[in-house]
Protein 1
Amino acid sequence: MDGVGSFGAGRTGSSIDPITFAKQPQTILRVLSWIFSLVVFASIVNEGYVNMGSERLHCVFNKNADACNYGVFVGLVGLLACSFFFLLDYKFSSISSVKDRKKAIMLEVGFSGFWTFLYFVSFCFLANQWSQTTPDELPLNAGADAARAAIAFSFFSIITWAGLTVRAVQKYLLGTDMTLFTTEHMDGGAPTQPYPSNSPVGVTTETTETYQSPPFTENNAAPTYQVPIY
């Protein structure tokens, strides 16, 4: 257990190796989620609206503005959340308090699980609206590639965010073993060291108690009288 701290992170004050951090499965999933969220957001914002012979723009998903708005919302918030949790992962080992670490992990578990569900809704919602879109609504097939990209990467985001949820739950379960930390770590303070003993290293001193008779026992004995002989 050397070098392992609470909730799956290194011990407080340990140095962070950027290469090792980049190779962690959680970091890879975080980067992929960031990319997928960017694709969903950018696809709808850039090409998700088409002009149908008027100045008003219509959503490519069956002219349903709610579908485009929902996709933009999920992609944008997911993008910002990935950036936040990426920094939190990098600074996690510097958090000295076990209580603060637990709060961070619980936040990650709750958000990752919730965003997995929202991306599942996004995939189903966008796929359903796209299936109802007729070719007449998209002249020259405008925005079709962007719509397919948003649907596909919403599906990929379900996988990556679910993986992040599993990793967060694993870190939370690792943090239940509190034997690695003392009570001082619970309050964020440094552990106190006991006073050094004067005994040589490796030598154990044993205290033995010897029985001592009560004082004046011999003096309190009755004196003997000897009869003089004439």
Protein 2
Amino acid sequence: MDLAVVLVLCLSCLLLLSLWKQSSGKGKLPPGPTPLPILGNILQLDVKNISKSLTNLSKVYGPVFTVYFGMKPVVVLHGYEAVKEALIDKAEEFSGRGAFPLAEKANIINGILFSNGKTWKEMRRFSLMTLRNFGMGKRSIEDRVQEEARCLVEELRKTNGEQFYAL
């Protein structure tokens, strides 16, 4: 029985090690320190002075490197030149937004807040055009908002405090 337990334990450790090696090699991420399973690189970073820890890592791995916070990879751009290259010289490649897992689960990935890429650009352009047509930046918008508010209050008074559904 003891030999079977040791054998199963060794096999499970080898399986976890192989899964960890496969998952850390996915994607085209910059080099960085080897993460621990589940913990990532959190033990290699001084949480009280994280900027000093990241500076030390940049001396070893260069101005662009990857650290893992838990199981999540984070690409670090360290220094003015690296940030300038990413945000100015290669602005189009870095203009995307991160994923919002909670929004994806709630299925609200469309719209201005949670969209990304081409969809976001189109929604932003449409929204700005519509707001400009409506009078954004002009004093006339205040009058229109007050008029709509008055109409809304009138409609709410007609309900006499009963429940209603807006279509």
Protein 3
Amino acid sequence: MSAAPLVGYSSSGSEDEAEAGARVRPGTRGCSRGQSPLPSQKLPVPDSVLDMFPGTEERPADDSAKHGGRVRTFPHERGNWATHVYVPYEAREEFLDLLDVLLPHAQTYVPRLVRMEAFHLSLSQSVVLRHHWILPFVQALKDRVASFQRTFVGLEVTSGHTQFLDLVSEVDRVMEEFDLTTFYQDPSFHISLAWCVGDAHLQLEGQCLRELQEIVGEFEDSQTLLRAHAEQIRCKSGNKFFSMPLK
């Protein structure tokens, strides 16, 4: 496989919407007569009471500053779990060395670019599952991908593209079973290296991508470096992870 092409693209949402932490409701301390109550504090409502009146819970404000400026494409809602299916990529030291060269060069064009904390290749969009659907959904995925062989990926897939299309087809069939959004038509499979808030597609394409591609092509052993075994498929639903090994 030749050194994988670099691509710049924009997205309307964040794949890591699937991140979920403990939901915090505003609390309060009692105040004595004559004292002014704190403006944003309220008594918390017990879960047992909220469960009696579904749909009446106050939703916490989604502060994008806590997510590096990223904005969720759908809000938090009690009982809903953001879910994403992907192939994880375990970055070796040589890969990170290459990224240490690529990112500063790209930041000369788009200074707000931020390095990804983890690397993966998406097989689905981020979708919403009800909690009681999670285990049946994961089992359906396991049944669909049980017979797939491992293959190779690069920054943008230049070999194994057909196998990944087959994988997406099986994941899409599970999505359809649960009446969820399927993957993109004619997808380009890639591993994201960095991200930024806003659409910087025009700043990255052209001269910037050509220069970055030259860096990749000249990097020692780049053809071997940018190959990796896809050994498993992973599903992240809220804060839960499920792995499905590939043969």
